[in-house]
Structure formats: C-alpha cells, structure tokens
Amino acid sequence: MGFSTLPSGPNGTIGVSDPNAIPVLLAGYVAQVLLFLVLPLLVIGVLWTGARLITNSGKPEEVARAKKTFGYMLSGVVIVLLSGIIVQAVTRSLT
Amino acid sequence: MKALLLACALIASLLPVTALASTSTTPTPTPSTSASTTPTPTATPTTAITIAKNICDDPGFYDQAFRYRAVYNAQGGINGSASSLGSGIALFPIVPDGLRGFLTYDGGTVSPVASAQERSKLIFEGGKVCTPPQWTLPVAWYFLQKAFIGITWLATVATTLFLLYAGVLYLTGFANEKNVEQAKKLITASLTGLILVLLGQLAVGAVIRLLSNDPNDLPFNNQLDL
Q: B interface toward A at CB cutoff 8 Å?
C-alpha cells in the first residue's frame, strides 16, 4: 500500500526537503484565504455597509460609523495582501 | 547456550587471522607480471565507507570542505564517478540535519551532491553523518547560519499566518469592532517578532565577523540555503 508522507498543499503535494516549495505553499494558502474567505466577507461587508448607510441616512453618527467600519474592511484586505508580499520579500532574500 | 555463543565469537574472531594466513601462503606474483596483467584495484563499498569514516574524524576535512562553498549550492553537482559507493568513491554527509551538503570524496577532491535521491541512497548504503571533531569559529558559524535560516523560515511562516488571521479579523470589524483591536495587537506582535528575528541574525553575524581574524574565510558566507 503506497501513501505519501509529504504535506499536501493547495498547489498539490510538495516536498518538505525543497526549501523553494515553502513560499509556493504559503502563497497557495494566501490565495485560498483570499478567494474563499476574504472575498465572500468583503461582499457581505459591502452589502452590510450599504444597508447601514441606507437605513441610517438621517443619523450622521451612524453614517460615520458605517464609513469607519468600511475602512476597516478595506484595511483587512490590504493586510492579507501584505502577508503574501512579506513572505515573498523574506524568501527572496534567503534564496 | 553461553558456550555456543562463546564458540561462535571465538570462530568469528579467528576468521580474519585465518584469511590473512591463507593469503600469506599463496605465492605472490612477480612485480613485472602483476604490473602488466592485473587491472588497477577498485575499492569496495566497505573500503569507501571506512575512508569516509576516517575523513569524518579528520578536523582538516572541514577546512577542505568549507573551501568548496562556492560550488556547494551548484545545481546538479553530481559527477558521474560519485554516483555509487562501488566505484571507490567515499561518500559522506557533512550536514547533520541531512538537508543538503552531502559531499563525495575520492581521495583528493571534495564534490557537492545536491540531489535528494542521491542523499537517500547514501544513507541507505551506509553513509555517515559527520559531526565536527573541533568546534572552531568557522564550524560554529556554519551551524549557526543553518539555524538562522531555519528560524527565519519559521518566523516568516508564522508571520504570514498571523497576518492572514489579523486581516480576516480586520475585515470582520464591520460587524464587531473588538476584532479590530485584537487584529492590531496581532499585527504589531507578529511584525515586531519578524523584525527582531532578522535584526538578531544581523547582530550575531556582525559579532562573529568581529571575532573572526579573516571574515572572508567564514564558511558558506551568505551563500547557504536550507
């Protein structure tokens, strides 16, 4: 019976003995998180903010708060993208 | 039972002596005929391993091996003669963690072996992991660099995962603002940790270079990967 002892990442089975595989593996996870978690949350967040803006159109405090939380959402996307950039920068300096 | 074991041990200990005795009684060929007809003797795998073990115990080997740092990272550094123990090449690894750095030795030249398959073959055929007989500054620096690279990889992976988590927490801040505070803490901590790891390596490297008489002679100076 044959089985693989190698970790199975989103980009397929990658050997741990190959250091160049680590950034590929991480980039794959970052892409997965972006696609399956960040993107749906972003859509929900935009809809939520839109709904808040419409329902609280007469309340400037609530509108400001909705705008603020929308800013948090965009910051979250930037941070997730930043994590991919950081791993690429560090691994490039190592190899 | 003990008597049987003792008898076996006695026979085993006598075997090399009888083998030597039998070779001594056989007539030796004349120098002229042996030089012209007999082929050049090739070392058996056992001999190759013995040579490798002796080399491992020789502190001078490390000096020689470190001089090959320029070719250490060369891709596909396997030459034809280094492919098997049977050809008389002594094969042995130099790096204890067994990741890379398996070297071949043919009695005069040290060559790098970079292939994972070749490495597994070496271990299977009796390759020996050399441990440093002397912890000189270059040897210590070599192992420190290996450790640094491992730590950097670990820190990078951890930072990436924490940033991913923090990003998602930030993103969910539209529903719960407490998540944003937690995400800020996570981002600060993970980035500070990564910067400390990188700066720490620079600091240790600077100290080692200050301690070393000839900084250019440090092994695998900035040319090593995991």
A: 99, 116, 149, 152-153, 156-157, 159-161, 163-164, 166-175, 177, 180, 183, 187, 194, 198, 225-226
ipTM: 0.72
If DSSP codes are grouped into helix, strand and coil, which group holds residue B8? Answer: helix
Asked if residue A80 belongs to a domain, the reply is yes
Residue A22: pLDDT band with limits 50, 70, 90: low
**Comparison of pLDDT for A89 and B112, the residue scoring more:** A89
- Do β-strands B102-105 and B90-93 pair in parallel, antiparallel, or remain unpaired? antiparallel
Does A13 fall in a domain?
Answer: yes
Which H helix or E strand runs over B110?
A: strand B110-113
Residue A2 lies in a domain: no
DSSP B159: H
A76/B159 CB distance under 8 A:
no
The C-alpha of B189 sits at a distance from chain A's nearest C-alpha, in angstroms, of: 14
- Picking from A30, A75, A94, the nearest residue to B170 by CB comes out as A75
Q: Quickly state the pLDDT bin for B204 (edges 50, 70, 90).
A: confident
Average pLDDT, chain A: 74
